[in-house]
């Protein structure tokens, strides 16, 4: 039976069981089976489209991997689609909820077994069909770096060495450490303390670097070089690494600062494997995914994964943002507007709409989190979150703190990297909290995104402001154009970085295969497309 016919049969079965299936969702499932990427705003529609596509593929291959961004989200997605799959007669185990990290771990384990001399090859993970939820996060936002598999391991004794250096640094210089120059008596004390260091760190160069690092860590300024998130995570300034006087200080910097602040040091991890998402998905001849928005991703997804993007409904908006900008003359005015927006929650009281302040950078979280916490203590539904691309915490965490089903007002403290990210925020907010009734974005020159992507243009904008002011050109139009251009540059650079990372990992895999005499990625048994998908079968992998 063709895949389209199986989808139509499954949709009819679900309708008979009481689950409404829109024509747009059914069409999205058909596109997924044609190696498509589909934009669906509602989470319910995305899960239903994935379930229908899984029903179509599960009739031919086992298992169909249903991938989410995290273990919790995979578990939730699996629980949501399980009743639909059972209604359609899909046997247990035919559709497997998982994550890319788990698939990468299975692939790495199988390849390690193949390279082991005299070892029995482990069962290779199946690579037949894969469906993704939140495809934009998996293939775009998190694809700049490879999937790294690590285990807690402090084989070199890094944390004990840092603790010993911190104690010696306090003993030698109880007050301001000044510079990192070691005096003769300090060198003598360091030589005497060498025996208490782990063996790896006893060499003169390494122990001197440890002591100098301990002094430098004491000079780091909270609010400038780093901040502490409400949950205790360290948030370093983006430019801190460039300001370090010694690049060697970057090794163990997090643990050294935690010891200085009296926090429990994070475990030191040892990398046991790494795999780029492009290499992980290469053996899958059947691939598809859904996301709240795929604006601007059609060319990259087609080039990297041969995915065809389909928007439902069609996304033809050329506007730089989908909601009004609110012009601010500077950061002081922006903070005043945010305060006034939060004060509106106090005026409306507990019965008013929920409010969520979205920040672009995690460093700003430290400034606004206490204000939001005070409002929450009054019983008001107010939250603050950081764009998931820059935050160590998932965006859903802040949304879950707000009451479900209550109208929600969004305020973006500054523009995000892309229109897609802003639309995805609006979609996820509506799903997790309630309908979005207000969405406002502050435009505060100089825009951080313009400074990062187009520093020359950012430096020239004040001059352009003065030149265009006599002719009546609105400043918001000029800065809006600069923002639009900066977003295009950011998208181009991000795509280039992801391609380069994939090529780098591919070269490393080839070098490893030459060294060990084994292929770095061995496909499973050859895939034979069914009659319905023969015309849609992609070219075979080399």
List the helices and strands and how they pair.
Layout: H1 3-16, H2 23-32, E1 36-39, H3 43-58, E2 64-68, H4 71-87, E3 95-99, H5 100-115, E4 129-132, H6 135-141, E5 147-152, H7 158-172, H8 184-192, H9 204-219, E6 226-228, E7 234-236, H10 240-243, H11 253-261, E8 269-275, H12 277-281, E9 286-291, H13 298-305, E10 308-311, E11 325-327, H14 331-348, E12 354-359, H15 365-377, E13 382-386, H16 395-400, E14 408-412, H17 419-432, E15 436-443, H18 448-453, H19 455-468, H20 475-516
Parallel strand pairs: 1-9, 1-10, 2-3, 2-4, 4-9, 11-15, 12-13, 12-14, 14-15
Antiparallel strand pairs: 5-8, 6-7
Helix pairs in contact: 1-3, 2-3, 3-4, 7-9, 7-11, 9-11, 19-20
Description:
Helix content is 48%, strand content 14%. The protein is of the alpha/beta class. Helix 3 crosses helix 4 and helix 9 (204-219) packs across helix 11. The chain is globular, with a radius of gyration of 27 Å. The model is unreliable at 313-321 and 516-542 (pLDDT under 50).
Helix content: 40-55%
| Widest β-sheet, arrangement of strands | 3-2-4-9-1-10
Distance between the termini: 29 Å
Count of beta strands: 15
**SS summary, helix count:** 20
Q: Could you name the ranges where pLDDT drops below 50 across 5 or more consecutive residues?
A: 313-321, 516-542
